């Protein structure tokens, strides 16, 4: 029923201007629309809607992620833009914050300005 439909993802923000700067200028997504209560971005054909909220508590798990060709190059680029990966006690990660799963996937996590946990993943099958 929905398998042939485009995905629309939602992320909350308490500061739309700060979120717009992060997703547009830091992450590099194309801003499609700016409305009073939301921002729409093109995320490689999917719609990412950043919704303005008065208050919220970020979730402790990944809410949005991207598959990348080279996780190390992506992290280095993020670092030059002031974004650094999270490091966790319960994962064995390298100095850049990359964890290699038992299946060989490389994953790293970073946060947006509101504390939403985002990820990048280099898939061994790609």
Automatic annotation (TrEMBL):
Ranges of residues in domain VOC: 5-123
Name listed for the protein in its UniProt record: VOC family protein
Superkingdom assignment: Bacteria
One matching Pfam family: Glyoxalase
Gene3D superfamilies hit by this protein: 2,3-Dihydroxybiphenyl 1,2-Dioxygenase, domain 1
Transmembrane segments: none
